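Following up on my earlier thread - several people asked me to post the actual chain instead of describing it. Fair enough. Here it is, all 302 residues.
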Amino acid sequence: MDRKTVALGVAAVAAVAAAVIVTVANGHGSSPEHKATASYIKNVDTIQQQMRVELTKATNAYRNFAGGKVTAKLAPQLAEAELTLRTLERRLRELPAPAVAAKLHRLLVRLAAAEVSLADEVGKLAVFSPTFSTLLHSASAAGADLSKALGAVTPPSAHTIRGTKKQVAAAQAKFKTEAAQAAAAQADAIDVYDARIATLSRELGRLKPPQVMQPAFSTQRRTLAATQKAGAALARELRKSTRPNVAVLGRRFSLAARAATSVSAQKAEISAVKAYNTRVRGIGGMQAAIQGELARLQQATG
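Reply from S.P.:
Thanks for posting it. Predicted structure:
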């Protein structure tokens, strides 16, 4: 995710308000429309000035997030920043606007609403991401431990048996016992892995992913569920007296664990990130629209 883009618009309304004052102050018109527009923009600036401290804190919080400065304090700071932007949106929405500045008012409110929406998503992302990353790391660690446990099991090697019938029968019985013991040990290791995956699945299910992380979240939930199911089937097969389907079930188990890295899963995650970045960059487009409306008002009101 291009997290640096998050900081592009976090204080856009305040920045626009300041730019608006300069634009109108440079005009020399005295028409009623000009005065009405100037009065409205002054009121916008007053709101900005009254909230300057809170807006500065909000800007810093989002810049820290975009810059990767994630600390334990960041999530509550982002929550406070979102409240600040919601307050700004409400005050702008409630501010009376003259007819001549109606479009400018709509654009400012739309921009503020976009800021609030982004703030909500960023706040959820800051809370979700650390826990999600920890769970994924734990799932990876469980897989690594399973590989070690399976690698520590040494099944007997098939070999040609020579000797008397009694000796051959004894050797065959010994091979069968050792093979069953090895298979049971492998099944035990898979059961331990499955238990860990079940715990991680429950913890994952308690998370609330933001929109941008929904595809990755859904993929991981499906992957863990499929892996657990395939692992249980493989463990049951390993504990049977005859185990003809171990190879097939083992392959299913391996494929289930790799589902999160499939092309379709990666495409869905990339698409979500692109959509997120588009939403962020859309704020720049709103700012440009506001500047265009300012220029139109400047020319129209004199």
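Residues 1-22 have pLDDT under 50 and may be disordered. That should answer part of your original question.
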